[in-house]
Amino acid sequence: MSAKALIDHVKEATGAVEREEVTPQGQVALHVTPANWHVVAEHLRRCPRCNFSMFNWLSAVDMEDDGFEVIAHLYSASSLQAVNLKTMVPREGGSVPTLTGLWRGASFHERECWEMFGIDFAGHPHLVKLLLAEPFVGNPLRKEFVLMTREAKEWPGAKEPE
Amino acid sequence: MTHLSMIPAIAESHNVFLGFDFSNPWVLLGLKLAAVMVFFLTAPLGVGYAEHKILAHMQARLGPMEAGRFHGWAQLIADGVKFIQKEDIVPSAADKAVFVIAPAMVLVPAIMLFVVLPLGPNGFWVENMDLGLFFALAISSISVIGMLAAGWASANKFSLIGAIRGAAQLIAYELPLVLAGAAVAMQAGTLSLPGIVEAQQNYWFVFPQIFGFGLFVTASLAELSRPPFDMPIADSEIIFGHMTEYTGIKFAFFLLAEYAGIVALSILAVVLYLGGWQGLPFINFIPGPLWTLAKVGALAFFIIWLRATYPRLREDQLQKMAWKYMIPIALVNILLTGIFKVVF
Amino acid sequence: MAIEKKELEPVQPTRKEQMLARFKEIEKKIAEKKVIGPAYGLAKGLSITLKTMTRRAVTQQYPHEVPDLPPRTRGVIALKEENCTVCMLCSRECPDWCIYIDSHKEQVPPKTPGARPRTRNMLDRFAIDFSLCMYCGICVEVCPFDALFWSPHFEYSETDINNLIHEMPTLAEWVNHVKPPPPLDEGAQPEPEADKEAKVFEAGGAVAAAPAASGAPAGTATTPAREAAPGPAAAGSAESTPAGEASAPAEAEAAAAKAEAPAEAKHDEGPVEIDEETYQAELAAGKPERVARAMAKKAFVIKRRKQG
Amino acid sequence: MAGREGAGVAVSDPTMLPGGPGEGIALDVAGSSRFATEEMILNIGPQHPSTHGVLRMVITLDGELIIDAEPVIGYMHRGFEKMAEVRDYRQIIALVNRHDWLSAFGNELGVVLGVEALMEIEVPERAQWIRTLLAEWNRVLNHLMFMGSFGLELGAMTPMFYAFREREEIQGLLEAATGGRMHFTYNRIGGLKEDLPRGFLKESSRLAKVVRHRLGDYEGLLLGNEIFKKRTVGIGKLPAAVALEYGCTGPILQAAGVAEDSRKTEPYLKYSEVDFEVPVGENGDSFDRFWVLYRRIEESLKIVEQCHDKIPAGPIMPGKMPKNIKPPEGWIYSRTENSLGETGYYIVSRGGKEPWRMKMRTPSFSNVSMIPYLLRGVLVPDLISVLGSVFFVVGDVDR
User: Fold this and answer.
1) Out of B57, B65, B310, whose CB is closest to C53?
2) CA count, 13 A, side-chain hemisphere, C276
3) Cα(C191)–Cα(B20) distance, rounded to whole angstroms?
């Protein structure tokens, strides 16, 4: 199934795709609203034509004022097609339905995304810290979180030869 | 068919030790104790050093090369010095008395084993017991109590698992060991170890008892917790089994007992199956003790060789092997030996 | 949220035949072993270890036997301080911020009488914190004047992490360990600049011999990076290198003119010797011999510069 | 101890539950269910001989039977993704060397391929071939390491030393070209840092023969060994569907029967021009995983040998390179078949010197998240057999 056919198929079948994106390199992204996140994901997983059986990864990108873009990268081992499912959530109180019921592997990725960005995954059965220590405060991958190693030390290259 | 009274060496006086006749029993006793201790402290070191070097060369390495300049011959002595210097740690949650006494419970039976093992003819043994074989087999299984004690007293889950594995394994493999030994005793018509050696004048028992020999070596490996049966100390699973919490000299005692065990059980296997000090015909001028040591060396090499080559089995597979295969084979072996004795 | 289990097609149909063939091969392999007997594998294993025992061991007895490392080995960064123009590029490009440079400007009397005196940057401190360094080699790559080199030397461990900040004398000392770059593969494209770089290398006296010429010239280490180096930096370096200076970078630029290069090298860049006075003083101060020697070398260079 | 313990152990992750326990072995351990025994919680790690690194497994035991297992990760979390946001692309190459330190070359390849695709840079043929060659050597290095350590974990220590014997030579070879033994930092956006030294290809082809010859040792000591088979055949069976759900890739997915390998399915570099196979397992058990690893070494050596003949003469950097590496605004997910599976970099560029965001998708992370599935219902010794055959590098898990 080509990228175009896939997009058309998903659009038609779910009617929930806001906007699609094909990069010059041929990579496909489907943008949905957080409310439709699970619906589209479920279609991609269950529909025999799509058959996105592999949950590759899930993460987010800090888009500053626009909020966070959550990305789930799915792969179909039968059609060798990959798709990026994207949605935008607000900076504070953003929530996306969990995908753990569709792919078991989503659990770790959602836990990581939750602790790194502070995005809630509604319905996740075990949303606790994964990589960070329990007492850690903050969401490291947000842009407002400063990287201490760069703050604590003076940049030796800042000097001008005088 | 040999009978005890027909063997000249056994008939000799109890005062003969290492080929000399002693009249003072105290001097004799002191010498015997000294001989046991010297042998106990040197032979395991020899095996330990051999293990270092043989393993290394089988793994395309050199092994110890620095201590003592020449090919690291003093490595184990250096190790011993290091062990003595190390801090002696007793975990705070440990059962202190048991924790301290456990290494001794493993070590002492290993020393006592050497009392009955004959190295050569004409009194190259400490004591010629009539029940030598049973004494040896019984003493060798006492160490399991030390193992359990160490595992329990350490207050460490890994130690506990290791100790229980070790106990289960020792109990399972004691049986084929004893049964294989029993067949030899039947064949020889005596339980005295020098007597068994003398009974092999014409042919070594490894030939009629080939299954017994296999069983005996396998069971010895299991009893010594040597690879491929080293689950009680499986270092990739349960760190070091019952020895996990031990440091310094106590840990060294466990290791010493292990290597003494290799020497002792190798001597036992040589005595029971490989003709003890009996040399091959035509090269009989080589003295008996050297023959024994050479055969023990070959067996120890084999044990080390196995360690270099095989992965370890799983505990339940090992148990299955003992109860389902080895014990029945050992029983059949006794039966066949009995038939053999009656018919011939 | 129970999962509806459904069989997915695990393999692409195009590769199905290939897979089946593979399975057959496995079966064959397993079957082969079965025929030979259950203990075949056990005996095979024993034979392998025994065979290895009869072969020579591969161990290198390290302290007695020094490893022969290839010239490109990233062992330690050596500094040829005469070449440094304090352009700060290395310090800025360093991902770990571990290169510290201090400098001051100095008036240099003109070479030809009557000309304007020039200012140039004098290096006061060049230190690399090897406890932070990740040995990526970006500093060596970006250095436009070949002041930094990789040396395969690796024996500089310290017992205190603070001692891993190595200052100029030590870094300069390590230049002695730098090996000439290896000749390139036959298929490599000759670098237009390579000739010149080889010259710089020779002139520095870092090593006795440049690579035997043999077709492909050496020393491409920094060339691609130089092309990619950011514009302002290159411009900056041009400013800080006044023409006609007898400094090392200027010499590097001038090295294209072959006749001049040896003459200038004689003038300023002869073999670095040890300033005996400083050497003894340093030793008396309780410095390690290695440091004392480096300090003495530094003193020698400074003295020579003053004279020249 | 308090924080993590409380979070992890009390309620184990329920998402692991569907699908049932690993159908590892038929449990005929004498009547373990008949006794009212108490469960024991055992911490394996963070410092433990068989977790090669600081992975911690909290396992609930009934006797030696594992009832539940939960990996606790993050002990080596170094914030790579955050660090990448303050580094330019050349510095990132040096950085990504270090998350999976056993396949450093493959990691840097992922980044440079992504940035080159974003910037539409044409990489010279010679550079591409050399990249292919070194990437395969790196794969051999990595697989040898895991073959050796798997043997060690099962108690056979010799393969480890043999593996290091071979690794030493290969590392020496790569060091001659790149200057590094583990962290190569040899790729640059557009090509390579410098060309191969003279004699490299000759030495490389000699070494390929040597390694291929010595592979027989591993086959004899492990693959063909009856004890090894007893310990691995049928242990930790992973169905293909589950492997995909967890995002397992590389040798693990291939052992489960899926011939997914982006060198074949989405060829990059010169993989479409070389001849090699993707080994596929049958049962997805520990033995198959190991077998696939072994076969992958053979295939990699095959590619290495083909590269020797095909490397053309020419430049290693494109003639016209932009002065500054500033990819245009946009995103790309660049995936490569790395040694342990699919390593991907999702790079978001806003036209700056540094990436706006770089998500690292690492194979070890997915593999470790799958481990509890395999561990339920196996014995403690099989934990080692499973952990050893689910190939992961802790730095790659925690990033």
Assistant:
1) B57
2) 0
3) 87
Cα dist from D247 to A76, C250, D240, D394, whole Å = 11, 57, 10, 17
Using CB atoms, list chains with 3+ pairs below 8 Å to chain D: A, B, C
C contacts of D177 (beta carbons < 8 Å) = 72
> How many Å apart are CA D346 and CA D358, to the nearest integer?
5
The C residues from 64 to 93 touching A (CB cutoff 8 Å) are: 86-88, 91-93
More confident residue, C252 or A104: A104
Contacts D342 to A, Cβ<8 Å: 56
- DSSP string for D215-256: HHHHIIIIIT-HHHHHHHTTSS---HHHHHHTT--HHHHHHT
Complex-level ipTM = 0.77
Long-range contact set of residues D80-83: C-beta below 8 Å, sequence gap at least 24: D80/D360, D80/D399, D81/A116, D81/A141, D81/D357, D81/D358, D81/D359, D81/D360, D81/D399, D82/A140, D82/A141, D82/A145, D82/A147, D83/A147, D83/A149
The 10s digit of each residue's pLDDT in D94-131 is 889 888 888 899 899 999 999 998 888 888 888 999 99
Q: Which fold has domain C76-183+192-242?
A: Alpha-Beta Plaits (3.30.70)
pLDDT of C237 reads 38
Q: Is the pLDDT of residue B36 over 80?
A: yes
CA atoms of D19 and D1, how far apart (whole Å):
31
Classify strands A81-89 and A28-32 as parallel, antiparallel or unpaired.
Answer: parallel
Instruction: Give the pLDDT score at B68.
Output: 81
Quickly tell me which residue has 């990069």 as its tokens. A23
How does residue C258 score in pLDDT terms, banded at 50, 70 and 90? very low
**Is A57 close to D361, i.e. CB distance below 8 A?**
yes
Residues of A in contact with C4 (CB under 8 A): 46
The residue segments making up the domain with residue A141 are: 3-158
Q: What local confidence, expressed as pLDDT, does residue C283 receive?
A: 78
Q: Which among B60, B306, B308 is the nearest to C58, CB-wise?
A: B60
Residue D31 Cα, gap to closest chain C Cα (Å): 30
Q: How many domains does chain A have?
A: 1
Domain annotation for chain D: domains and CATH numbers: 2-72 (no CATH), 80-398 (1.10.645.10)
For every residue of D35-91, DSSP letters joined together read S-PPPEEEEE-SS-TTSTTT-EEEEEEETTEEEEEEEE--TT---HHHHHTTS-HHH
Higher pLDDT, C251 or B35: B35
Task: Mark out chain A residues that contact chain C at CB-CB < 8 A.
Answer: 46, 51, 53, 77-78, 80, 100-102, 104, 153, 155-157, 159-162
Contact yes or no for D250/D363 (Cβ under 8 A)? yes
* Res. B135: pLDDT tops 60: yes
pLDDT in tens, A15-63: 778 888 888 888 888 899 888 888 888 888 888 888 888 888 999 998 8
User: Could A162 and C4 be called an inter-chain contact, meaning their C-beta atoms sit closer than 8 Å?
Assistant: no
Token pair 């294989």 is found at B180
The answer to whether residue B174 neighbours chain D at the CB level (below 8 Å) is: no
Q: How does pLDDT run across D141-159, given as a tens digit for each residue?
A: 999 999 888 888 888 888 9
Report CB contact under 8 Å: A162, C104: yes
